[in-house]
Amino acid sequence: MKKKLLSALLLSTALSSFAQNEEPQWNGKINKSWKASEPQKVEYLKKAKPGAPNVLLILLDDVGFGATSAFGGLINTPNFDRLANNGLRYTNFHTAGICSPTRAALLTGRNHHAVKMGLFPNYHLGADFPSYDGHILPENGTIAEVLRDNGYSTYQLGKWHLTPDEETTDLGPFVRWPSGKGFDHNFGFLGGATDQYQPDLVEDNQHIKPDGRHLNQLLTDKAINYIDKHNSIAPDKPFFIYYATGAAHAPHQVDKVWSDKYKGKFDQGWDVYREQVFVNQKKLGVIPANAKLPERHPLIKAWKDVPADEKKSFAHFMEVYAGFLEYTDYEIGRLVSHLKTTGEFENTAIFIIIGDNGGSKEGSEYGVITKTNRFSNINFTRDEYRKFVLSEFDKVGGKEVASIANYPLGWAQATNTPFKHWKGDANSEGATRNPLIVHYPKGIKERGVRNQYGHVIDIFPTITELTGTPQPELVRGYKQTVLQGISLVYSIANANAPSRHSQQHYCIFANRAIYKDGWKAAAAHKPTTLELFPYSDEPEPTIDGNPDNDIWELFNLNEDFNERIDLAAKYPDKLNELKALFESEARKYNLYPLIDFEHAAIRRKQVLEKQAEKPRQ
Fold first, then answer.
1. pTM of the predicted structure, to 2 decimals
2. Which distant-in-sequence residues (6+ apart) come within 8 Å of 221 by Cβ?
3. For the segment 129-166, what is each residue's pLDDT rounded down to a tens digit?
4. Domains of the chain
5. Which end of the chain is more exposed for a tag (fewer CB within 10 A), N or C?
């Protein structure tokens, strides 16, 4: 009986999906006699435009602007380098500043609050407010849905993080799984992070057991399998692959063959790293030649002042992170090589977004290894936590323990060179400016650097323009809201074309900003120490919580791209103009109420306590 019930539920879900499809119009004639009737063949499956390219959309996780060698970093990414050298480097591209919001904006072409992903779909954060409940509705269709309805096969691999917790079991409903958002097949994990060797895997609409191989390898093997099966069945049909790695989000786990390549490479510390990367970035032309490096963040020690035992531990954390990221580049390179083998490389548009936000601050002061993340550090004094991390040195990056390894805060700023701050600080370019590589041999005639302003919501219309795919009024019978992104295709052929995306708001954990024609107003919602140093002996900060008391800064990014000089006092009228614009955008896109870190932490604790109270079934 249980099996029959399960089958009925799955069938019902599938049929409800088909029922929403718009039925094509039939224009024949029907009479009583078939001889007097006029048939007309109905084309239920649209075909893609002749010669339409395949699309490979790659999104990395928790990688700052200055991490990869493709953008001046000290971590070797030879495959990214080759694609960038033979394609385009976008230097002024932006994300939402944290995981799920970036992914929701990327796939829907709409701002994340507008599609109800103000933060995350898990732990019910802010679920009592419309723009935070984590339920992307069908009127905000995805790029996968549009491409599939126009003749593409669609595949999702890796991190999803767009399914509400209560919908993640094998009973569904599957409307917010990849299969419900336009993907013919999917293979990856639904949450925000997972163990790299024992990932919480799903394939299509069910959980499966991993086999012990690294997640990066599993994803690439599956992607190659998808391509081969696709080509054996429909070689003339284009495909869309969304490949979202778990890397380099915590847990940082990788075979020692990769991390050992970096032994001793970071012994000089994060201050030297920043200086070397800054020089590299100028040589590459991805930052202005007259740029200046911001001061080290006051919460981070100068490397020369770090005790020797901590230096050894901190450098090792970075060795593991670097090996993890280089290995990710290797596996993506293996996928790209397969496209060459199958002869599809020249007609595949590849987009690589290096990070869904800047480097992660979640490793806090000393780094994280096992079950000692920032939500449980309160069980330790600062000194106890320090000693614990140092004692766990050999476990960093390993697969023998339930690792959640993440590097210390100093490396977050270093890998975000040339910017300030880090993941989640949506007021800062350090959280929201991420590199973009575009490679498309048949569509890109002039290689080089592009400095036009862009945002993840621009990728959707860019893909539809490149593929010649019209944006439909209806998807599965639902009238679609207007896309808020602007295609970047105009910039592909013209490096000097003026930016068309002239205005953009940001808001994560009440940290917020508004950009308009090169000017940016930004407000940080404090206290930062609540997030970064949650030790039991850390004095509780005084929390105001009133966003009206946050201090706004003003930057001219045309002259000061990395926000070194606050012009708020010099140009109060400009600041007030931008603050008023932010208020207008906040009302338009449902940014209020501003859910901050304190609220999110309280909600999470409440949910976990409630779950613990439930009796075992």
1. 0.94
2. none
3. 999 999 999 999 999 999 999 999 999 999 999 999 99
4. 54-607 (3.40.720.10)
5. C
